[in-house]
Amino acid sequence: MKKLWIILWMLVPLAARADSHAQPVDWQAVEKIPHFAQILVQTQQSNYCYFVRVTFDNLYCLSSKKGFPYTPQKGPEVVFRRDEIRDVRIERYDWSKGIPSLLAGAGGGGGWDSSHQPTAFAGIKIGGIVCPCSLDLQYDRVQGHSGFSTEGSAVLPLFRFPRFHESVLPGSQKNDDKERFLRVYAEPGIGYRAGGGAFGQYTSAKVLFLLFPDDKPQPYLEFQRRFPFSSPMQGDNRLTVGLMLTLCEHCGLN
């Protein structure tokens, strides 16, 4: 027991030295935080709140539940003394995560079939309104034959690049919620092609590369492999390039 007390007394100066070397809070950057921004104030504990204002000595905000619900629930005003604040960070919400509430795009492209013959197509994509899925309507040329195809696919988010940062320092370049990023989706589906040539019913595997933000139509890239029911190994590979308007899961249809 005596040895334990000796070790604890030896650690106290080290802890004090580490605390003395902690980086001070950039108060000028804190003063520029937007009104009602969601912030994390680190004192002896983590405090989530909505920013109100700062003075030379204090930071004022409205208390909030941890995680910031999508519908703001602002509580009573709380005050933090400047000398007790260890860190202030802006808490962001990844508004693009989950299933898009709306997909609307048009594109075209080409590819090659099992005989290495070139193919071409153009069409539209809509979806996400009532389910995590999309509907593709296309006109194409396969092995010299024109045809129309309709296809339904699930839209499953995989990952985004660059990675989302939930907490950022005030004044950080990552503060901008409209910074561009790439989100990747998997689209397993089933469809039917009518027209010249042998194809008919088929299953499909697609990967969608979509550029955000979503305030206006953005470029998208989609790679697809189709497998006909009658001869799965006689399918085709296709690459689509186009423009798509995407509304996120939590921002509604407006």
Could you list some keywords that capture this structure?
254 residues; mainly beta; SH3 type barrels; Porin; eight-stranded antiparallel β-barrel; six-stranded antiparallel β-sheet; 2 helices; 52% strand
How is this structure best described in words?
Helices cover 9% and strands 52% of the residues. It is rod-shaped and about 75 Å long. It has 2 domains: 21-91, SH3 type barrels (Roll); 102-247, Porin. The strands form 2 sheets. An 8-stranded antiparallel beta barrel has the order 6-7-8-9-12-13-14-15. Strands 4-3-2-1-5-11 form a 6-stranded antiparallel beta sheet, with no helix packed on it. The longest helix is centred in the N-terminal third of the chain and has 19 residues, at 2-20. It is mainly β and 254 residues long.
What order do the helices and strands come in, and which of them pair?
Layout: H1 2-20, H2 27-31, E1 38-42, E2 46-54, E3 58-63, E4 77-81, E5 87-91, E6 102-113, E7 118-127, E8 133-142, E9 145-154, E10 156-161, E11 167-168, E12 181-195, E13 200-212, E14 218-228, E15 236-247
Antiparallel strand pairs: 1-2, 1-5, 2-3, 3-4, 5-11, 6-7, 6-15, 7-8, 8-9, 9-12, 10-12, 12-13, 13-14, 14-15
